[in-house]
Amino acid sequence: MTVREDLRVRPAGTADQRALAHLIQASPHVHRHLDWRTPLDWIGSSPFLVVESGGLPVAAFACPPDPPGVAWVRLFADSETLPLVETWQVLWEAARAGLAGQGATVAAIVLNDWLLGLVAGSGFSNRQDIVMLERDQPDPAEAPLPEGVTVRAMLPSDLPAVAAVDAAAFEPIWQNSLPALNRAFPQAALATVAEAAGEVIGYQISTRNPFGAHLARLAVRPDRQRRGLGAALVVDLTRALANHGLSRLTVNTQSDNRTSLALYRRLGFRETGERYPVYEIRVP
């Protein structure tokens, strides 16, 4: 698609940071991926594109792959210099061209109705929903640790082993890469690993918020699943939170992940009613 002569599409650069920060703050249409990084942290990764007018970005789109082969729409911002649909189409087509040949799946968690129309109109299809759950009970849940397993605080040196557990436990679209975990760890309020025979076989990372805590990640190595380890990690977390006077814990999972949903319901979590669709498209 061509763009007006007074506009051009180009990669974002570090010199754009201030202008992009203003665009994100002032734009009437902003999508930011739920991520361990801020949108501007992706500058320098490709594709991260802007529409420029008069030397300043008036729209932006970023979907750099991480892990390889999985490109979440991490940022879309529009100042209405062009009609919304036209801005999306111009940037999406340029980003898709940049991904061509990599065999990437591009995905977006749709948090706004206006984004739903854009992705659906570009050939994205609904993969599943993100389901939000919460537990607000003063008493910790109960679940014993499997024999021979211990839980301890996560250390920076654990992160490569944690990344290996994550890669084994999830399909690529939901995996946390080692660079992502390196970003996540300093932001965690509570992070623990489960060990057996000196090996990391599971982990959880949780963050604090004004209302309590959020279980951002729970993973167990596939050969150790269905033995109560995931439940034991969550119970250890609820006890730690109770010691800090916190009872509210939130978590999200996929609508088609029956095992995960059953685990959280058994531990006292209830759906909040919030659901966000995940849309994806394959770029050959």
Strand line-up across the major sheet: 5-7-14-8-13-12-11-10-9
Which secondary-structure class do the elements indicate? Answer: alpha+beta
Residues in β-strands, percent:
35-45%
Succession of helices and strands:
EHEEEEEHEHEEHHEEEHEHE
Number of domains: 2
Global geometry: elongated
Describe the fold and architecture.
The protein is an alpha+beta fold and 284 residues long. It has 2 domains: 7-123, 3-Layer(aba) Sandwich (Aminopeptidase), CATH 3.40.630; 132-275, 3-Layer(aba) Sandwich (Aminopeptidase). It has 7 helices and 14 strands. The chain has helices at residues 17-26, 84-99, 113-121, 159-169, 178-187, 229-243, 258-266; strands spanning 7-11, 29-32, 48-53, 56-62, 70-72, 75-78, 104-109, 125-136, 149-153, 190-196, 199-209, 212-220, 248-254, 270-283. The strands form 2 sheets. It has a 9-stranded mixed sheet with strand order 5-7-14-8-13-12-11-10-9, with helices on both faces. A 5-stranded antiparallel sheet has the order 1-3-4-6-2, with helices on both faces. Helix 4 packs across helix 5 (178-187). The protein is elongated. The mean pLDDT is 94.
